[in-house]
Write a structure and sequence with these properties.
12 helices; Rossmann fold; alpha/beta; two-stranded parallel ribbon; single chain
Amino acid sequence: MARVVAVTGAARTLGGRLAQALATHPEVTEVIGVDVIPPTEKLEGVRFIRTDIRSPAIAKVLLDSGVDTVAHMGVIATRRQAGGRVAMKEINVIGTMQLLAACQQTPSVTRLVVKSSASIYGCGPKDPAIFTEGMDPRHPPTSGWAKDCAEVEAYVRGFRRRRPEVCVTILRPANVIGPRIRTAMTEYFRMPVIPTLLGHDGRLQFLHEDDAIALASEAATRDLPGTFNLAGSGVLTLMQAVRRTRHQWLAVPSPMLTAVGKRLPGGDQADFSREQVRLLTYGRVLDTDRALQSFEYAPRYSTEEAFADFLASQ
């Protein structure tokens, strides 16, 4: 049973919403939100502590508060959120290392939940039709957010070996989408002219932000050890999604997508990194049977419904 929960990344959309959801949970007595920046909105029922998880000060926060559950939602997906790629790498990798060291030094910690990403599977022409949690990537990510997630998971596995009594849950969600969250993927579909891949139509999956919060909340309040793929049922191809936006699109060869995309209106907010271009080119589909069998909560939105709810908010 979770009593005192610390949520990292509490100033951002998913971290803040998870902290507020846990604050209303009947089994949770206190929620501590942690982030290096203050939240833009008041976090009802949450005690916010402004601190940097890259600093040893995070250990004092966990010890002094008697934290028994840590929900690490502070792995940042875009350079813009972090203030550049160097800062992003430091927050994601160095910050996770420091947080894990703090957890190791805190005897009261008995549960750790880490939000990773399905991007650790990479994307490429040799990928299986569906990824299960036990599969190794055929095309491992070599840069950016996806590579950071792979490194984060490696450090988490090391922590699990050092503290085997701690219940460790790793969540690998597909692209989270919805009316409130702003990500590189949502910004891509907001572009007035959307660049697409000539000759390619990758299969995409989405997880609605409400489902992401509900699943993370359950992981933080129940013992669910292991790694779990999370996604709404079904798939959308890239062109199916683009057509539903009713925006114009421009088909370009894959090698030109980054250069063209950055020059189109809104392209500076989207992500045209190598890994993102590979996702749009080849797509990625997850097997979510393990989560459906282990979690009491099942996603209420299919991939198609999650995308429709995102579009309805535009």
